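thread: overnight batch results

M.L. [08:02]
morning all. the overnight job finished for the chain we discussed friday. pasting input first so we're all looking at the same thing
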Amino acid sequence: MEHEYAAADNATVRVAPAVARQAVQWWLQLQDGVACTATLVAWQAWRAHDPEHERAWQCIEEVSGRLADIPPSLASAAMAAPASRQRRRAVRILSALVVAAGSAAVLRETPAWQTWSADASTATSERRSVRLPDGGTLVLNTGSAVNVRYDARQRVVELLRGEVLVQTTHDVAQKQEPRQRPFIVQTRDGSVLALGTRFTVRQHDASVGVAVIEGAVELRPVAGDHAMRVLRAGEESAFTRQAVRSIRPLDPGAGAWVDGMLVVAHCRLDDFLQELSRHRPGRLGCEQAAAGLLVSGTYPLDDTDQVLLALTTALPLELHYLTRYWVTVRRKQQGG
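M.L. [08:03]
and the structure it wrote out:
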C-alpha cells in the first residue's frame, strides 16, 4: 500500500512505506556523526538509484526540523543496536512521520507517539506514581500518558490519554508569592481546575470523567465560561467539549485502581469486562447472552486471569480461549 504526502510545490507525491523505512535508516546512519566516505557514497548511490528514493529523501529534508525535535526517548531508541526491539519500533514511528510529512498532527494522536513523546506514560497493566515539581503527586493508571508543564504563571498537567489520580499540594515554588499558581489538568475536551484537592481524571473517546475524593474542582469545557461547573468532594461527573453532564454521588470504587483493585457493585458484566480489559493485553469479549449479568465485589487488577476464573465460580459463565490473549466470556449452557 502506498501513502501520499504534499511536497513543497503542493504536488501529490507517493512514497511506499518500505522506501520510507530505507530513508529513515539512512538518516539514522548519517546522524551519528561518524559516517565514513564509503557510507556517504553508498547513500548518494541509493538516492540516485530510483526517483522514489530521492523523493523519500526530499521528504526527510522537508521535515528535518521536526525530526530534529523528536523526543529524546524516541531518538535514543532509534540509535540503539540495529537488531533491538526498541530500534525497530522507533524506525516504524519515524517512517510514519516521513510518509505523513504534512500530517504530523495526526501521528501525534496515536498511542505509540504519545507514549514515546510524553513526560510520563504507562503500558497496559502498568501503574506509575510521579512526583511533581511542586511536591504534588500523579498516579497514572494503565495505558496513560501525560505531559507536565510548569511555568511562572501556572501548573499544567496535560492528559494525553488514559487516567490519572492527582494529589495537589501547596505551591512550594511560590512560597514568597501572595498568589499561588493555578493547578490545571488539560484534556482535549476542556480542563479541570484544582481547588486544593485529590481527584481522578479519565479521558474517554468523546468525554472526560472526573471524580473528586477530597476538596473540589472546577470543570471547564472547551465551550467556554458559561459551561463551567464546580464538583465537590463525594461527587463525580463527566464533560464533553460543549457541556458538563449531570453530577452524581461518587462511586465507592472510584480511585481503587491506585491500590490495584477494581471495586464494583451491581455492575453489568459487559461493562465490568470492558473495564477489566484495560488492564490486560489482547482481546476480552462478552457474548450478548451474558452481558446483562450483574457483578459485585473487589477484584485484583494484577491478576486478571484469576479474576476471570472467579467470575465462572460466582456466575453461570464459561471462558472460551482462542489464544491466551483472545478470551470470550460466555453464558454456561444448561446441563454444561
